[in-house]
Amino acid sequence: MRVVLASASPARLSVLRAAGLDPLVEVADVDEEALLEALPGAPPAEKVTHLAGAKAATVARRVGAAHPDAVVIGCDSMLLIDGELVGKPSGVEQARKRWRAMAGGTGELFTGHAVLRLADGEIERVAEGHATTTVRFADLSDAELEAYLATGEPLAVAGAFTLDGRGGWFVDGIDGDPSNVIGISLPLTRRLLTGVGVGVTELWTPTR
Amino acid sequence: MRVVLASASPARLSVLRAAGLDPLVEVADVDEEALLEALPGAPPAEKVTHLAGAKAATVARRVGAAHPDAVVIGCDSMLLIDGELVGKPSGVEQARKRWRAMAGGTGELFTGHAVLRLADGEIERVAEGHATTTVRFADLSDAELEAYLATGEPLAVAGAFTLDGRGGWFVDGIDGDPSNVIGISLPLTRRLLTGVGVGVTELWTPTR
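Above: the input entities. Below: the structure tokens describing the complete assembly.
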């Protein structure tokens, strides 16, 4: 059975590879803004789960012919800070502002997940869910912030921080699942796979 | 300034590399049992910090001549389950027993840290501390446990689980710093570096 990751995120791919999967990557080009406009006032968990489902379904329809026996995994992550959902910063100035507001405080990372099981190239079973992880940001100094901004790393990611890169120095702790912060919750994905009748260990690559 | 990691752990090295450091690895061969016998009844935090300090000091004395301007980082991790400190399992049977006891429950990962700053080859400043992270283990099935044991991964690590490998599927969440679970807390190391007068961002490798 083929595992297909419906995401362009190198961080998600890296999490899955470290955990023993070797997914095919197929990027879904969904219109996120249009999808979200159809859900006015929806809570963050519903938004990210809806987007994850749309990404997975788009990719499932595309790969069904080539990979009739597969599971397709879609994800979407957003950071909630002071009641506001934030994505990637527009530039270094916005990233600096965000960090000045986040430093010493907390945010909530929402990741929606959708797991679609294909049989004979058709979507046979679907399991969806979301996970939330609280992130406690360090009270970093101006010099540290400027050095971090200069790496370019915070400009490329939702919420302007990473847990698996240099941002890890500036996250004092989390409450929840760390892989969820990186963009794909391993324990939730495991439960969703079980929900569509697939044991995650059956998908593992050989270890020796 | 050279960064020296006084640990043979590939997981610690990997955490530091992902976070922008390129440490020299120098393994300390301290007699852990003898060191712990000198601290009868000490709490876990004191034990791991004492071992971390001994490892860092041993390596600092060894590398001082070759690397007179350096910071040496020592770490030691232990998992506390049901009031008992556990290290690496003795074999597959002990790993299976541990997991049957841990599944659906929690453990506490203690990591002691010592940061020694060398100047002119001598230990000039020392900062020590520990971090504790609570780990919530999934209620995994017998089939999942057997598949995990068969990978050999849990046999090589303290507490018989990893967060950064296939064990990640079976950790439902944590409360604390995830890098601490892998064996070196980035935010604590950052604070200890500050404590010896070194900004972590000054140690970063170039990004481009």
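Note for the figure: Chain B has a mean pLDDT of 96.
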